[in-house]
Design a protein that fits this description.
Elements lengths: L2 H59 L6 H10 L1 E13 L5 E14 H5 L25 E9 L2 E9 L10 H4 L4 E3 L12
Antiparallel strand pairs: 1-2, 3-4, 4-5
Length: 193
């Protein structure tokens, strides 16, 4: 075998090796992005469930729950009142209208049956609701307070992922961590939109 054939074979094997490492590097990045997307989707689902519970708590108590223990207790034992609103419009002389609104309490349903029933969440586990998916057992951070806006006091809450899996969300002391609500505004939106 002459030298050119040996060199061709060596270069061919090196090219195959480099091609494999290039493919493997790209594939690893793609798989990591898929894993991050799946974990963040699970985190977002839990944040939406926790937001629903916070809104029900606020409707019943006039403020938001500031800890998981308070919110968990409300989910286990709390009630959501069923209110019927009836609006009647009466036509007065000269085409003027008078509208009256009446509210009637029809009863109540438990928070667990209303928000987390088996039909909506067949595998619901209340004890795991505050645990951040993919975090190794860490719990969401809860915050609730009242802030003053235009001489009015408004209730605010924030529930946030304390240890984001996504490196882009960990920048600047987890500034972009997945969260719902706001510590400073009357927002119940999540930052994933």
């Amino acid at each position: 075998m002459n030298l050119s054939k040996v060199l061709s074979l060596v270069f061919f094997l090196v090219a195959i090796g480099l091609g494999y490492y290039l493919y493997k590097g790209v594939d690893d990045v793609v798989e990591e992005e898929k894993k991050i997307a799946l974990v963040e989707a699970a985190i977002i689902e839990k944040l939406q469930m926790l937001r629903d519970a916070e809104l029900a708590y606020q409707a019943s108590n006039g403020k938001y729950a500031g800890s998981w223990d308070t919110l968990k207790s409300f989910i286990q034992t709390g009630k959501i009142w069923l209110i019927q609103r009836t609006e009647t419009t009466k036509l007065l002389e000269y085409g003027k209208e008078e509208t009256s609104v009446a509210f009637d309490t029809l009863g109540s349903v438990s928070v667990m049956d209303s928000l987390f029933n088996e039909r909506k969440f067949p595998d619901f586990n209340l004890d795991a609701l505050a645990t951040v998916p993919g975090s190794g057992g860490k719990q969401f951070e809860f915050f609730a307070d009242k802030v003053e806006r235009n001489s009015y006091e408004i209730s605010v809450f924030e529930i946030r992922d304390p240890a984001p899996i996504n490196p882009a969300r960990r920048l600047n002391n987890n500034e972009k961590a997945l969260k719902v609500g706001s510590r400073t505004d009357a927002s119940t939106e999540g930052n994933w939109k």
